[in-house]
Design a protein that fits this description.
By secondary structure, this protein is of the alpha/beta class. The protein has a domain of 173 residues: Alpha-Beta Barrel (TIM Barrel), CATH 3.20.20.370. It contains 8 helices and 10 strands. It is globular.
Length: 258
């Protein structure tokens, strides 16, 4: 990324993860601070009514609409690995993207991107066969969509091979390993709790294309879109803070063109 040109970045957030009587996240409050939204499709979170409501909220804020398909593990919030085959992964993604696309169509919107959730995302980042299945599902259901994947991952490479537009995603509040993967959530050092440290990491990834790993070495990274999470206790405050800092740094927040 050339450092002498105006910088811009997409700021995405996982939304629509409430279901039934359970409310998760701060969807309506966070939307004004992000440029794209990843909407849960009913497997790890969300339900039909929440999907429709969230699509309407996102359209009202003129934020880019994305599908956020996950593993069928509501109790584990889609964050536990499952021994799924590539064929099963294809079916899961096609099913969920199709469901959200139907609600987007019903509300007069347009599907902008697809970003797998949780364990499915992490598995597809390193497993070439799973990555190919996920990318193929997106390509066959909605080939105009941008495929969001972990920066430098097998998922991004699979999308590129099919001719999909891709976005290399980085994380504001997660720590990294020296191979470019995210630190497992099972480890106590997986999350960055300090807002200042998280924002500093983001600015460096955008401006320098580098992130400091937990092993103390710099890792080259491409930042096309930044993920912030909407379900933490301080999620809203962090969304406001990171948007303010990016603006102060002269980095424009906007969705990628598809």
């Amino acid at each position: 990324m050339a450092l002498n040109t105006p910088l811009s970045i997409d700021l995405n957030c996982d939304l629509g993860e409430s279901f039934g009587a359970y409310r998760i996240g701060n969807d309506e409050e966070i939307l004004p601070y992000v440029s794209s939204a990843n909407i849960a499709c009913g497997f790890h979170g969300g339900d039909p009514s929440v999907m429709r409501k969230t699509v309407r909220l996102v359209l009202q804020q003129q934020v880019a609409l994305g599908a956020h398909p996950g593993l069928p593990d509501l109790a584990g919030f889609g964050r536990r690995e499952m021994a799924v085959s590539p064929a099963e992964a294809f079916d899961m993604v096609a099913y969920q993207v199709g469901a959200l696309w139907a609600f987007i169509q019903a509300e007069g919107g347009r599907l902008h991107h697809v970003k797998p959730h949780g364990a499915l995302y992490n598995m597809a980042a390193v497993n070439k066969e799973l990555a190919a299945a996920v990318a193929e599902a997106v390509y066959k259901v909605f080939p105009e969509a941008i495929l969001y994947g972990l920066a430098g991952s097998e998922l991004v490479r699979a999308g590129e091979r099919l001719g999909l537009q891709t976005a290399n995603e980085v994380f504001a509040d997660r720590t990294y390993q020296q191979n470019g993967t995210l630190t497992s959530r099972r480890r106590p050092d997986a999350l960055i709790q300090d807002h200042g440290q998280a924002v500093q990491q983001v600015v460096r990834m955008v401006r320098e294309g580098k992130v400091l790993s937990q092993q103390g070495t710099d890792v080259a990274i491409q930042a096309d879109t930044i993920c912030i999470h909407g379900d933490g206790p301080h999620a809203l405050a962090f969304a406001k803070h990171i948007r303010e800092v990016l603006t102060a740094e002269g980095i424009q927040v906007q969705a990628r063109h598809s």
